[in-house]
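Our working data are protein records whose layout never changes between entries. An example says more than a description, so a record of this kind follows.
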Amino acid sequence: VSGGAVEAVAPAKEVSAKVEVEAGAAAVAVAKNMSFREESNRLGDLKDAERKALAELRAKVEEAIVEGKLFDDDSASVKEAAADEKKPEVAAEEKKEDAVEAGEEKKEEEAKEEVAVAEPAEEKKEEAVAAEEKQEEAAEEKKEPEAEAAAEKEETAAVEAEKAAPVAAAVVDKDVALWGVPLLPSKGDEATDVVLLKFLRARDFKAGAAFDMLRRTLRWRREWKSLAATAADGDDDEGDALPEGACVLDGADREGHPVCYNALGVFADEAVYRSALGTDGGKKPARFLRWRVRAMERHVAELDFRPGGAASLLQVTDLRGSPGPARKDLRVAMKQVLDLFQDNYPELVARNVMINVPFSYYAFTTVFFPFLTQRTKSKLVVARPSKVTETLLKYIPIEAIPVKYGGLKRDGDTEFACEHDAEIAEVVVKANSTETIEMEATEGDTTLTWDVTVLGWEVRYTEEFVPADEGAYTIVVSKGRKVGAGEEAVRNSFRAVEAGKVVITVENATRGRKRVLFRHKAKSALAKKC
């Protein structure tokens, strides 16, 4: 929209598409691809076994919160297990002592037999030695009761001190929450079940395992020092801000899930790489890990944990220009992030789409796949550079896909901000054929604006204005040119001083068909703002 003048929308006819051989074929509206759907979080949609597991987990969480034991680390059970492990060791030591005593008794008997056959002089000598030994034994026997008494005294004192020590009262916090959702089931918040279901699904609906996972997550969050920066905090301490474009939310998919774009190419810069993988002398985790956790926290804040809401992200990871699997530090950091997210952010990523994947990635995945759960593997989608737009279009509307990935979304764009401007049409160009798209201006002084993208491109593209007056000359808006596979969507406009139409010609010389997606609008000088 240009200028500040009051404008009125010119009546524009429906966009038509023509094939040179079969003129007059109409452009068809884009049929939305069937996107994935999350498993239902509504209680009525759960199976009987799943409802039973949820009820069991709710009971465990309720009891732990009310009794103030939700954050306990089960130290008592750990001590009991350690005591059980020590029992065999004590028994073995006692057997060893008995064997030593038996050996000493045998030696004493042999010594007595030798004394019986020895000469009288030797007998006296042996008697003297035996007397000395008896005196030493008597002294040792006298010391043993004293040592035992001292040990018993110390044990008694330790027990009394332990009893006298004040027992810390359990802290009951009924307002404990996770991701902004209260965890106490008796509060009646419908989002509580949605959060608990995520832990159940991550543990195959085993209530005990899901409960343990929840407790570990809560303990980790309490200990993690870098979670102070939330979505509302704009300042990052110690320069822990993510590199620009490294991890951003941009739009939503067809089901309303926020879309998170991760661009690993920013780490190809050596300075950024060193900064990201630095460990601050071992005092803190790598900055890369802190970046990802803090970014994840901001993104989770955008989710809707109510039943039926978008309670997970669609994650797009762009590997174009990334440092590659040869960089060990990056591999280690990504493995840490993977483990951390699987353990503490269960079921918060509905789909992970990896795009611009180089051939080396397939060797790279052999390192990480053994560490992925089966559910995580089932959510992974891989797209080579030539299939990026086509893959993203399965989950995200073309108008919400950024132009750098072949979509029509431009930052700060106002041209197609109105709902009636967002209608998308599609034309299929068959192999070795040509099609045209027509956009009409029914009166003079009308501005036509359009967006066009072709999945995979590799076509010849031309734009012309044909006046309604047959005697007028055709005006070339854009000369014919070959458009490569990596081209962004075309955005152009033309001000028609007289009635006519803009004709876009797409020539496909390849052996495969091409999908052309486009939108347009026509405004006269008196058109109103939307």
About this structure: Confidence is low (pLDDT under 50) at residues 1-36, 75-85, 228-238. Residues 236-396 form a domain with the Phosphatidylinositol Transfer Protein Sec14p fold (CATH 3.40.525.10). DSSP finds eleven helices and 17 strands in the chain.
